[in-house]
Protein: Aspartate aminotransferase family protein
Organism: Thetidibacter halocola
Amino acid sequence: MPTAPVSNLFYQSRQPRPMLDRGEGIYLYDVTGKRYIDGSSGAMVSNIGHSNPRVLEAMRRQMEKATFGYRLHFQSEPTERLASETARRMPAGLDRVFFVSGGSEAVESAMKLARQYAVARGEGTRWKVISRHPSYHGCTLGALAVTGYDPLTVPFAPMMREMPKIPAPTCYLDRDNLDPAARGLKYAEYLRDEILRQGPESVLAFIMEPVGGASTGALVAPDSYYARIREICDEFGILLIYDEVMSGAGRTGAFIAAEHWGIVPDLVVLSKGFAAGYMPLGAAVARSDIVETVLDSGGFLHGFTYAGNPLACVAGLAVLDEIERQDLVANAATMGALLKSRLDGLMETYPFIGDVRGKGLLLAFELVSDRASMRPLPKELNAHSRLVEIAYERGLIVYSRRTRGGYEGDHFLVCPPLIVTETQIDEIMGLLDGALSQFADEIAP
Ligand code: PMP
């Protein structure tokens, strides 16, 4: 049994966790040899699975050449190539890439670039970045300021300039008579109302996760929402930032989720599946005129020591190659549809599953007391941690959160690597069914 941890991850808990030994494909093994299915790709990171030999070989070759070159001293070929390869996968016009080491850094970079663009255009009154509640955009103070997840933000409120929030489109909880299209428009209008309340001249940008992640459990809005949000941003000259840290790099069955609705954001934020856990890597991708304007005004006042380092970029390039070579974006769409229908099927057996949602392989289910009211399960049941614990014991990793702003509701992300096969989906579903059945017995009156 591992001893109580003393390292960084475990600042959150004294609870020992199994000691990781190795990973292979969609499986992870601890030092006792126990095997786990990585049913959430870590935190929706390991998109191409573990220990991919092509990625390891590309990294080994780069390590033998140069592991680090400071970005202000040298350009590096892998960094330039990854920028082009990333831009090639983006909607036309989004062709400038600022590399960083993770999602929070990428969000900060996008927001600061947006701010400098406004200042350079003589619109220095614009600084507010409107976001949604619930949402998650990162843990650094800037990214936290746009995060709508009270347990993580409230203690730090005095230390940051909290940004205005509008309700996220949690349509599955609505009990009105609207059809989905009208509901989507209703939620989009919250943005217009908020812009008018704040004063349009003070609003810089709107940031949203096109398919929600940790905070909302794979929340997808009705189609009408996306186009209307773009229109509203255009009406007031507000930049639209898509945070695709979780939804990007193929996870939803498109390289970025924006493609599903034909939306062209002004800035796109990537991380997680981008280098798929092989190296820390993130990116803020911007319209070239935004970057040119900032450059003309003296340059981007921002940077991280490790930003754009060649080793991380080689890993990113090799991951993109694998996504293409194995056609993983298409696999995410096909396997996602299969997994979603299998999760939908669980609703027949377990009345406490209130909703199954998501796109591609960014999928989640939510537990409720009953479907009529959609009230959450009692907090004391601690369902979000108990069900994860049961699944873990059985060798299946799923990712859970208490949702709806962080205080109530339990959702579970089922997001295996994009390399998952039909047989492996059977395996995941077998273990999940067993875990749910044990959980049902435990909570039975
Ligand atoms: N944005 C989104 C949508 C995320 O899901 C996350 C991480 N869960 C972040 C930003 C922050 O990324 P990181 O933890 O790499 O800083």
Observations:
- The longest helix spans residues 328-349.
- The domain at 8-51+327-443 is CATH 3.90.1150.10 (Aspartate Aminotransferase, domain 1).
